[in-house]
């Protein structure tokens, strides 16, 4: 079986090929973003472009995290196509539970000025009791949804302090969102948390404008 990266790696010597493959494996499989200082193929722009080309073969792209770390995620166009496939979309119950975690761990603290606008990681866990109060799911179904979300890396269970029961926060998969994906998710969260707010109205108006532009250019 031929190596799918042969064409991209052929011009490099053995050491460089090993560095490129190591960087590719790290950004694809590490749960957290990897520091570029550990990988020459992420530090050097020319090699990093080759890693990007390797990822592109599978519809993936490099995602920068806090300036000096990297992970990978689906390209925006590929993600849009996957979102149309019901097999790639979590069940409604899991999406509802995830939305509650995002609202209470991210949206509310951000509105209070406790989180930066562009972050989806949070030190403000949503307590399990809060999730039980806010959802109509039976306890067993809620626990099952949380378990599947944890396994998918979409939520993490944490403790807020030594005497705190803690709760749930967005998981490591949120590191893998591109800039455009983070922006879309932020808009969706605003629409879910405050559908009647002026900001939600502005988002809907902007989207209608984009749809009209796309229709006119088609």
TrEMBL record:
**Pfam families in UniProt:** WHD_DprA
InterPro entries with a match to the protein in the record: DprA_WH, WH-like_DNA-bd_sf
Please state every residue range assigned to the domain named DprA winged helix. Answer: 121-159
Q: Which domain of life is it from?
A: Bacteria
Name it: DprA winged helix domain-containing protein
């Amino acid at each position: 079986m031929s190596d799918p990266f042969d064409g991209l790696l052929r011009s490099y010597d053995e050491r460089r090929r090993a560095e490129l493959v190591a960087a590719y494996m790290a950004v694809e499989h590490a749960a957290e973003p990897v520091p570029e200082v550990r990988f020459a193929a992420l530090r050097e722009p020319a090699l990093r472009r080759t890693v990007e080309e390797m990822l592109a073969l599978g519809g993936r792209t490099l995602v920068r995290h806090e300036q000096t770390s990297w992970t990978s995620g689906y390209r925006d166009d590929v993600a849009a196509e996957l979102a149309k496939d019901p097999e790639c979309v979590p069940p409604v119950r899991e999406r509802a539970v995830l939305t509650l975690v995002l609202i209470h761990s991210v949206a509310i603290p951000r509105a209070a000025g406790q989180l930066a606008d562009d972050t989806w990681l949070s030190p403000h866990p949503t307590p399990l009791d809060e999730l039980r109060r806010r959802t109509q799911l039976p306890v067993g179904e809620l626990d099952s949804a949380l378990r599947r979300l944890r396994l998918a890396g979409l939520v993490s269970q944490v403790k807020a302090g030594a005497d705190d029961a803690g709760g749930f926060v967005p998981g490591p998969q949120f590191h893998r969102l591109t800039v455009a994906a983070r922006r879309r998710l932020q808009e969706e969260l605003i629409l879910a948390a405050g559908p009647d707010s002026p900001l939600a109205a502005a988002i809907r108006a902007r989207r209608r404008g984009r749809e009209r532009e796309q229709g006119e250019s088609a």
